[in-house]
Amino acid sequence: MTQQRNTYRVNYLLVSAFIVVVIASFVLATFLARDLTVTYVENEFASRKVEVLEYNIDPFNNFFHNRIPEISFYQGYLDSAGVSAYADSILRAYPFVERIVFYDVSLSNSEHIDYGFSANNLVVYPKGVYQFSAHGAHEDPSSATDQNSQLPLSLSDDFNNMAVKFAAFIERVDTAKALLEDDIFKVFYSVTPGKISYMNIPRRDDLKTYKELMYGHHIHNAVYEQDVLTFFINPNKLSLTNTVPELYQHIAIQPLVYESIDTDPDLFTTETPLPGALADYKIYLSSSRPFLQSEINRRFLPVMAGVMTIYLLLAVIAYLIYRNLYVNKRMFKLQYDFVNNLTHEFKTPVSVIKIAGNNIHSAKQLSDNERRHYGKILDEEADKLNNLMNTLLSFTQIENKSIKMKREEVDLHEFCNKVLAASEIKYRDLQIQCIVEVKKALYVDPVLLGSIFQNLIDNAYKYSKPDNKVLDIKVTQAKKQVIMHFSDQGIGIEKKELVHIFKKFYRVQNQYNQQGSVGLGLAFCKELVNFMGGDISVDSELGRGTTFSIVFPLD
C-alpha cells in the first residue's frame, strides 16, 4: 500500500519553463535591440547628411534668394558708386563670392550704336563694365575697371547670354499679363557651376516700351537703363560646420568627381551634391567604424537600460511568485504540523480520560486510593484540554483585537511570588530563582501577564535537560521601563532559527519538540506582549541556554 504524501505541491516544471523563457527572451531582446540600434545609426548616417547640407548652404541660399534680387530695387539706375557699396557688402558677408562683374547696360533703338547685341530695332549694349574682388577678409574691394569699348572675350560671354535671353523674352512677352515666377528665373537668372548672372527685373510698362523699341519704326531714338551683375562663386570657401558630430567624424567640400583612394573597409562614407552654382562640388562625409561604434554604444545603453528594467521587473515578479510559493509551502507544512500536533494534544488527554472512565466503569468496587487516583487523572487531563482551548481562543481574540485588556496596578514582587509558588507545585524539579528590583507598580492586565510568565516558564522547563532544569527570572527598572529577563540553561536555539520562533505554528526541530507542541506558545507570548504595548526579544546560544527579554513602558 502506497503511503500518501501530505506536501504542498509545486509545479517545478512550470517554474523552470518560465525561467528559461524569461532568460531566452532577455537574450533575444538584447540581440534585437543591438541590431536595431546599429541599423538605426547606419540609416541616420546615410540620411542626416541633408541636415549638414541645409545648414551649410543656408548662407548661399540667403545670398541667392535675398541679396541678389536687391538689384531690382534700383530699376537699372545702379551707378558705379552704388554698385561699389553693394559689392563691398556682398564680398564681406559671403566669402564664397570671389568676384563680381557689373554691366551697366543700356537699351536703345539707335542705329548709330555699333557694338552690343541687337534684335530687330532693339540694341542691348554695355555702357561700362566694373569688376570687384576682395583681396582679404578685412580689406576694401579692389578697384574697378571701366570698359567703354568692345568687351573682352572673358566678359562678353556672360553679357551675350543674358542679352540673348532678354531679347528673346521681349520678343514673346505678353505685356498685358504679370510675369510668372518661371519666366523670372529662366530669363533674369543664369546659373551655371561657379557663376550666377542676374539682370534687374523691369516693370510691366518698361517691358511694353522695350517691345515697342524692338518693333516700332516711328518713334524717336530712346535709351533705357538695365543692370546685369555676374557673381563668381568658389564653393571651397563655404564655411563648413558639422551639425551632426555624433555621426560624422570628418566633413569636407570635394569636387563632384572626387573618389577617395582610401580602401579601409572600416571607413564609412557618404556624400551629397551641392545645388545651383555650387553643383560641381559635393559635401563629402566620413567616419571610422570605431567612431560609429561609440555612437552605437551610446544609443544602445539607454535602450539596454530599458530592457533590463523590464526584465528586472519580471525578475522581481518571479521572486515574489517564488517567495509566495515558498511561504505557502511553509505555511502548509506549519498548519499541517499544527493540525497533527493539535490532534495529538487532544487525543492524548481524551484517550487517558476514556481509559480512566472504562476502568471506573468496569471496576466492581473502587478503593478510596483508586477513586482519588482516577479523579486526579480526569482532573489533570481536563485541565490540559481546557488550557489548550483557552490558548487557541485567546490567541484568536488577540489577533482579531476582540479581547479587552483590563489594566490595573500590579505589584511585581507579589505577582512574581504567586507565579513562583504555582510553578513550584507544577514543576517540582524546576529550580526557579526570581529577583525583583523595581520601585513602581506596573500598570498592565495581570491575567495576560500571568499567561506570559506561565508560557515562558513552561518553555524553559520543556527545553531543559532532565538533570539541569534551571530558570532565573530578573525584573529590573531602567528610567521609564520595566525589563524582565527569563534565562534558562537549556539546549539553546540555533541562530538561524531565532528569526522564526515567534511565528505562528513554527516549531524548532529537535528531540524535545517531537510531541506535545502546537507551535503557538512563543507566538502567543509575543502577541500578548505587543498587545500590552511592550516588546519581546530573544538571545540564545546552542547548548548554553536561552534568554527572553521583555520590556514594558512605565505609564
Automatic annotation (TrEMBL):
Provide this UniProt record's keywords sorted from A to Z. Answer: Kinase, Membrane, Phosphoprotein, Transferase, Transmembrane, Transmembrane helix
Q: Which residues lie in coiled coils? A: none
What sort of enzyme, by top EC class, is this?
transferase
Which residues span the membrane? 12-33, 300-322
Q: Which reaction does it catalyse?
A: ATP + protein L-histidine = ADP + protein N-phospho-L-histidine
Name the domain of life this protein comes from: Bacteria
Q: Which SUPFAM superfamilies match?
A: ATPase domain of HSP90 chaperone/DNA topoisomerase II/histidine kinase, Homodimeric domain of signal transducing histidine kinase
GO MF annotation, one:
phosphorelay sensor kinase activity
Q: What is its EC number?
A: 2.7.13.3
Q: Can you give the residue ranges of the Histidine kinase domain?
A: 341-555
UniProt-listed PANTHER family: HYBRID SIGNAL TRANSDUCTION HISTIDINE KINASE C (PTHR43547:SF2), TWO-COMPONENT HISTIDINE KINASE (PTHR43547)
Tell me the protein's name.
Answer: histidine kinase
* Organism the protein comes from: Parapedobacter pyrenivorans
Taxonomic lineage is:
Bacteria, Pseudomonadati, Bacteroidota, Sphingobacteriia, Sphingobacteriales
